[in-house]
Amino acid sequence: MSGFERRVLAAVRRIPPGRVATYGDVAGMAGRPRAARAVGNIMKGCRDPGTPCHRVIAAGGLLGGYGGNLQLKRELLRAEGIEAGRTRIRRFDDVRYRRPRRPGRT
DNA sequence: TAATTGACTTCGC
DNA sequence: GGCGAAGCCAATT
Q1: CB-side exposure of A60: number of CA atoms within 13 Å?
Q2: How far apart are CA A106 and CA A8, in angstroms?
Q3: Residues of A annotated catalytic, as ranges
Q4: CB neighbours (10 Å) of residue A10?
Q5: A76 CA – B3 C1', rounded, Å
Q6: Is the N or the C terminus of chain A less surrounded, counting Cβ atoms within 10 Å?
Q7: Residue nearest to nucleotide B8 (CA to C1')
Q8: Are A29 and A99 in contact, with CB atoms under 8 Å apart?
Q9: A40-91 pLDDT, tens per residue?
């Protein structure tokens, strides 16, 4: 397992329930903001229990993919209070998870 | 080592 | 909203 992959999985695990993050966001949390594709590639092989891959979606609130079971992804999200339309998450901006910032002077 | 492959992202039509 | 093109990144062959 490469360091990048490990960081990506760790980032995904940090996404709280009821919230989602885009591949790009996860890539950023992993330290490679431009590696959204690589993140997707890793997600594809996401079989680690405890890693909520379903909370990772595409940019703009698009659903992205889920091993062909996009329907399941929607249900899982819905179970966490996130509703999704045919192609897109609802209230995406509200449920989107962001990297925690260092508390400091503003 | 080089080429290919995507659960990506942004832009234009 | 859907489609095609270009850019970008790591894993796999």
Answers
A1: 5
A2: 28
A3: 53
A4: 13
A5: 37
A6: C
A7: A37
A8: yes
A9: 999 998 778 889 999 999 999 999 999 888 999 999 999 999 999 989 999 9
